[in-house]
Inverse folding.
């Protein structure tokens, strides 16, 4: 599984960082990015899906 | 300022009507079904979308919907009356790009995760100190004696203004937002706030501190200093946006817990659930409705909107739309999928959302640690304020008497020192 963020859509709500800090980071301007290349280890797949379905900007996508 | 009770919500709604303020949920549910974008001629006229998809789409459509008018009712004619020749605009909230872009960028780092983490201990000490003042009596007003006291002091810290000003600030902010339909109160508060902040600007020009106002006074945008109007507006906005809103959110959360013993007990037993529960309280009891001005004629869902029309971005109603949320009228404190827009959507997403979330979490967590068992006092009358910002203004509660923590190592004085400086 791979997770990515569309920087054109992200508005820095930080829901992803709150739900899955192992997968996402946010900068001082609230902009989020994926940690590393976005590969999600099996143990974190549930968290990745949670982050995706809580982002109010629909900025997170998951490739299975 | 009193108006006729509303009979027809779709064509004659009033966001200050007592029925709307105390229990808007059935009204929104009906509108979503029958007339998803309502209209009124009251308070200068406005449009009111109630569906998530419409609210979100309009919030993102900055080409057609300008933020130059964000009050739910138009402010009295601005300009001449304002002290110091100041044009009272509130960047970034009351502006469109390009002013929005740079002013938001200036503000965001002040409320980044890293900064906000640094305020957490102070917030916790403040909450404990407030609880100490009533815990031995077994009763309290969870809104006026607790929720209302927290955000204003934290924002005061970032602005570098003294703690003693807290009640005055709270009064001004309430007059500007809750009593916006009273021109006299709103006008006086506006002038008082501008006059006070102008004095602060003068003071910091010669004697800068490490606060937001001082930084703005020494910042250049494209080689030009930030104008006094903009500095004043940004400082005023932080106060206006950061106080009533957060206090309302804390109050609604405590009201929910005072009236839902099973949820209260679950959070006492499972404190780790609190961040998820806070998101649910934000969704179900969203405090903030924002205005927009139609920039150029546009038709939305068959509604002919004309340039200059006012529209109210009804984030609270969007958050109860069954198209976007499973069982939206139920408060489910462990709700897993919750794409709520309590902090808005698009480029104006609340710049203080990290701070607001921290304050909410610490306020509820500290309350539950000290007063795990509480309920509405017998015969309690809970009052709500509404309009731009909705939340409970009085929540009389009772609980088994507890003891102060004054002697405990983590309580009391250091918060006082931090906040008094
Ligand atoms: C529970 C508490 C809060 C809620 C529900 C809330 C809600 C909102 C909403 C809905 C917006 C979007 C406005 C729009 O689209 O026009 C907004 C913007 C804003 N909020 Fe908050 N807010 C809260 C707390 C705070 C706090 C604590 C601050 C402190 C600094 C703050 C500062 C701002 C600012 C500066 C903006 C303007 C951002 C921009 O226009 O780019 N808010 N807030
Ligand atoms: S939740 Fe969405 S909008 Fe918010 S920071 Fe993460 S990706 Fe960006």
């Amino acid at each position: 599984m791979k997770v990515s963020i569309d920087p054109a859509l992200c508005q820095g709500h930080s829901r992803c960082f709150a739900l899955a800090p192992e997968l996402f980071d946010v900068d001082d301007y609230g902009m989020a990015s994926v940690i590393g290349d976005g590969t999600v280890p099996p143990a974190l797949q549930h968290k990745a899906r949670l982050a995706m379905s809580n982002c109010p900007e629909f900025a997170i996508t998951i490739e299975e | 300022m009193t108006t006729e009770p509303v009979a027809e919500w779709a064509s004659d709604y009033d966001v200050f009507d007592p029925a709307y303020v105390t229990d808007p949920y059935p009204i929104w549910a009906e509108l979503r079904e029958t007339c998803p974008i309502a209209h009124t001629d009251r308070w200068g006229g406005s449009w009111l979308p109630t569906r998530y998809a419409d609210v979100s789409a309009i919030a993102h459509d900055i080409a057609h919907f300008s933020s130059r008018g964000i009050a739910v009712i138009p402010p009295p004619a601005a300009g001449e009356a304002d002290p110091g020749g100041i044009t009272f605009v509130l960047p970034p909230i009351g502006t469109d790009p390009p002013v929005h872009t740079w002013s938001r960028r200036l503000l965001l780092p002040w409320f980044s995760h890293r900064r906000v983490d640094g305020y957490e201990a102070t917030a916790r000490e403040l909450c404990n100190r407030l609880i100490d003042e009533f815990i031995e009596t077994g009763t309290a007003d969870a809104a006026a004696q607790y929720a209302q006291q927290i955000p204003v002091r934290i924002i005061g810290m970032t602005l570098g203004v003294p703690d003693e000003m807290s009640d005055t600030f709270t009064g001004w902010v309430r007059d500007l937002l809750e009593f916006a339909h009273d021109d006299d109160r709103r006008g006086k508060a506006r002038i008082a706030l501008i006059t006070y902040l102008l004095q602060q600007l003068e003071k910091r020009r010669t004697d800068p501190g490490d606060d937001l106002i001082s930084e703005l006074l020494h910042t250049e945008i494209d080689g030009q200093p930030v104008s006094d109007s903009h500095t004043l507006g940004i400082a005023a906005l932080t106060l206006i946006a950061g106080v009533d809103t957060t206090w309302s959110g804390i109050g609604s959360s405590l009201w929910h817990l005072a009236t839902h013993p099973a949820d209260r007990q679950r959070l006492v037993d499972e404190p780790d659930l609190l961040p998820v529960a806070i998101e649910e309280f934000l969704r179900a009891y969203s405090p903030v409705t924002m205005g927009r001005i139609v920039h150029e004629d546009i038709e939305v869902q068959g509604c002919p909107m004309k340039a200059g029309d006012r529209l109210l971005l009804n984030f609270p109603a969007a958050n109860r739309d069954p198209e976007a949320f499973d069982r939206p009228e139920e408060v489910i404190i462990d709700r897993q999928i919750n794409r709520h827009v309590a902090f808005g959507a698009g480029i104006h997403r609340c710049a203080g959302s990290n701070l607001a979330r921290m304050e909410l979490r610490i306020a509820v967590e500290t309350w539950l640690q000290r007063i795990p068992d509480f309920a509405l006092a017998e015969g309690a009358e809970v009052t709500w304020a509404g309009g731009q910002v909705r939340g409970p203004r009085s929540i009389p509660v009772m609980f088994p008497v507890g003891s102060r923590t004054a002697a405990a190592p983590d309580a009391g004085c250091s918060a006082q020192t931090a906040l008094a400086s």
Summary: Chain B has 18 helices and 14 strands. The first strand of chain B starts at residue 37 and ends at 40. Chain B touches chain A through 24 residues (CB under 8 Å).
